[in-house]
Amino acid sequence: EREALKVLKTAKSVTVDGHEVELAGNIGTPKDVEGVLNNGGEGVGLYRTEFLYMNSDHFPTEDEQFEAYKEVLEGMNGKKVVVRTLDIGGDKKLPYFTFPEEMNPFLGYRAIRLCLDRTDIFRTQLRALIRASVYGKLCIMFPMIATINEFRQAKAIFLEEKENLIKEGVKVADNIEVGMMVEIPASAILADNFAKEADFFSIGTNDLVQYSMAADRMSEKVSYLYQPLNPSLLRLIKLTIDGAHSNGRWAGMCGEMAGDPYAVPVLLGLGLDEFSMSATSILPARKIVNSLSKKEMEELAAKALTLDTAEEVTELVKAALNK
Ligand code: PEP
Ligand code: MG
To answer: In what residue span(s) does the PEP-utilising enzyme C-terminal domain sit (predicted)?
Structure first.
């Protein structure tokens, strides 16, 4: 089985009717790049930079960060690397930073909210990223964007730091894409507006499901509400992808759902361009993509959107995969 998958390492992620998508890997540290490449990853769709901060006893300096980002970009050898800016808070804390006491940390001071408040931390990371941009194909994305104003503020800070570095005589790439994660229902619903300003979307279903279902992703008791295939979620995903495409942007997904064998056919049908997952899921996903027809999956997705429950969607997909 593993051996049979190996031949797919250099194969294209293309459907039987010629529709090509990108299968990428999620990483937490530069060391993970090897695993993505060994599993035929066509890029990095999510670099969770918070580990750089969590595995340190101080806020990592600009130079420390630069080295890590450069290593990942060089390691991927020109393939696309999507780096997520600091996503701390919620369940992820730092020993050297005091978070406010909050009733609901997952609904509180975290990710881009913290970065737009502590712009000193944010600017350091952006400078490190922009400096590293000449070593590969860099895409930067902001986590937990809820409003257009948050995206504008974050992008403006990025542009300021880019300008500053250019003035300092530092070489920077001129093709850095600046996008955002879609993991809050508000931004999925308004995706067509966001797409006028964001270069791309990456759908974070781990959080998008949590916030859509109002079900804490850490709570065992309500884990039955983790239903990425619920038609309500599929509709939010459709809004996001359509919003991107109607503005000439691409849409990816980096939540667990992207590598779920029952989700891949539906996501293909909805038009998802990039699927980012743990490295070991890439080859099995490619095998599925290679076996399906985009046109048939479009019909499957259209049907799925009309169903009532996640179970019904799962049954629909199972029937299609068995054909
Ligand atoms: C997500 O929310 O789906 C995601 C990819 O981010 P994280 O799991 O790191 O919150
Ligand atoms: Mg998330």
So the answer is: 4-291
